[in-house]
Amino acid sequence: MKKRIAVLPGDGIGPEIMPQAIRVLEAIGQKCDHQFTFTHGQVGGEAIDARGIPLPTETLSLAQSSDAVLLGAVGGPKWEGLEYERRPERALLGLREQLGLFANLRPAKMYSALVGSSSLKPEIVEGIDILVVRELTGGIYFGKPKGIEQTATGHRGLNTEVYTTEEIRRIADVAFQAARKRRGLVHSIDKANVLESSELWRREVINVHQNFPDVELRHMYVDNCAMQLVRYPKQFDVVVTTNLFGDILSDEAAMLTGSIGMLPSASVGATVGMFEPIHGSAPDIAGKNIANPIGIIASAAMMLCYSFELTDEAEMIESAIQKTLEQGYRTKDIESQGCTLVGTAEMGDHIVKQLGH
Ligand code: NAD
Asked: 276 and 265 in contact (C-beta within 8 Å)?
């Protein structure tokens, strides 16, 4: 199989972790006879410094003409003072919008070797396997009117939560389809007791559920879900929710599994999928060779699975990560007693070695 991958390392630890994912993909390519070609593009702060904007046209064209996009992370203190439209994070919203990526899949799975790294008790977190399906192109991040307006006494900041029938139905469909391949349970998370947009959300999720009688549907308010995730996380299989709620809940689910540096994500919808770790650019640890590359390596595995249908190859990467952790290798964020502390590149070495290279 021949595939063209757009590689957008971005800022902070992005350029440190990206080479590890590329090495793993090259190792899988050699092992299983696939040809992956990697074309680099500028995004985020790096693109602002070079071109004045976070998502240059060349980068967008590269993404649109590739088979998939692998992204590191964007942002950092250097660009925080810029006006909103020119900030690095705008590049992510632009890519999601332009590529039609309406569904963000974020697995939060507990690796058994890491049960001790969670801030919760082992018996609470052991066996966690949650998939958060977050709506990505609608809701309050995109709704209009929005902005900051002058008032007689100061200013007024305004954002609008908007969801349409079509937007809710297509994300619900993704969630029910995913649940069919898993344990067959969907929790739909909303705030239907307060928000009209949530009232419609709940109504439409119930409508879509009629096509999936084999999947169980439960509804939960977002405040309760935030609490249940730390009280009894094993009750969740697939969690489907809005853009804003999903942004927050997926980070909470992530922390149950030990480190934000471990977790991948897939953004899908139209033809070209985008794959990135859920963490940001981690400016506090950038350039020190201590960042955990597992989140981006697992994102590369999701790319093989969701964009290229290479399920076996994706599982090989998952298993290489698992074995590396079982052998006791840890980056600083998941360090524990008796384990061998390794840097970003060394963690990449061990995972590549597990793949037989
Ligand atoms: P962050 O995820 O970058 O960092 C939060 C904490 O987790 C930090 O202590 C960091 O050191 C640690 N961490 C993150 N990834 C790690 C890894 N791979 N290995 C080890 N430790 C890791 O979030 P933040 O500090 O809120 O944001 C920093 C910058 O990243 C901001 O500019 C923010 O806007 C941006 N951001 C970008 C994305 C993205 O590109 N998708 C997502 C979130 C935040």
From this structure: yes
Instruction: Tell me whether strands 2-10 and 35-40 are parallel, antiparallel or unpaired.
Output: parallel
Q: What confidence score (pLDDT) does residue 341 get?
A: 97
Asked, for residue 115, whether it belongs to a domain, the answer is no
Q: Does some domain include residue 114? A: no
Ligand 1 pocket, residues with Cβ under 6 angstroms: 13, 73-76, 89, 92, 260-261, 276, 279-285, 291-292, 295, 333
Question: Residue 191 catalytic?
Answer: yes
Mean pLDDT of the chain: 95
Both 27 and 89 in one domain: the answer is yes
More confident residue, 131 or 260: 131
At 71, which CATH number?
Answer: 3.40.718.10
Give residue 14 CA to ligand 1 midpoint distance, Å. 10
Of 256, 285, 308, which residue constitutes the final position of a domain? 256
Same domain, 155 and 236: yes
| Distance (Å, whole) CA 23 – CA 21 | 5
pTM exceeds 0.90, yes or no: no
User: Of all protein residues, whose CA lies closest to atom 23 belonging to ligand 1?
Assistant: 280
Find the 141 Cα to ligand 1 centroid distance in Å.
Answer: 19
CA dihedral (333, 338, 342, 346) positive or negative? negative
In the chain, how many domains are there? 2
Structure confidence by residue, pLDDT tens digits, 44-70: 999 999 999 999 999 999 999 999 999
pLDDT of residue 357 exceeding 80, the answer is no
Residues 154, 145: Cα–Cα separation, whole Å: 19
Mean pLDDT of 197-215: 98
Q: Is residue 247 part of a domain?
A: yes
Q: Which of 13, 281, 294, 332 to mutate to test the pocket of ligand 1 (most atoms within 8 A of CB)?
A: 281
